[in-house]
Amino acid sequence: QVQLVESGGGLVQAGGSLRLSCVASGIIFSINNMAWFRQAPGRQRELVAISGVTTNYADSVEGRFTISRDNAKNTVYLQMNSLKPEDTAVYYCKANINGAGHRAYIYWGQGTQVTVSS
Asked: Residues of the chain with pLDDT > 90: what percent?
């Protein structure tokens, strides 16, 4: 059993910054990749950034957001700079983890709200 717990969301003015964190805990042999998704009201959940063999970003956040990992702490971060009102969403952490039986499982966090005011 693995849990992902996100933190760091909040309310910020346009142009400001926030740093999200997501910690994975439980039976973890290795982590294949970790990613951040977001879902705004009335919209589909979308990939923001992923860190695995390679690192990739959505076009809408390229150059403003940075994903990073601390493998010793099973943690992924999302540094968000130059925030815009359209970045307002619930941000979710997703991880592909090799756990019990050395099988890969997908886990999601509970989400953290990010609100950017204009």
From this structure: 94
Q: Would you place residue 57 in the very low, low, confident or very high pLDDT band (cuts 50, 70, 90)?
A: very high
- Given a contact cutoff of 8 angstroms between Cβ atoms, the answer to whether 56 and 48 are in contact is no
Using only C-alpha atoms, the chain has a radius of gyration, in whole angstroms, of: 14
In this prediction, residue 52 carries a pLDDT of 96
Based on the number of CB atoms within 10 Å of its own CB, is 95 exposed (0-12), middle (13-18) or buried (19 or more)? buried
Contact at 8 Å (CB) between 63 and 79?
Answer: no
Candidates 110, 76, 103, 87; CA nearest to 3 is 110
Cα 54 from chain centre: 15
In the prediction, which pLDDT does 99 show? 85
Tokens of 31: 């982590």
Residue at 30: amino acid letter: S
Average pLDDT over residues 35-59: 97
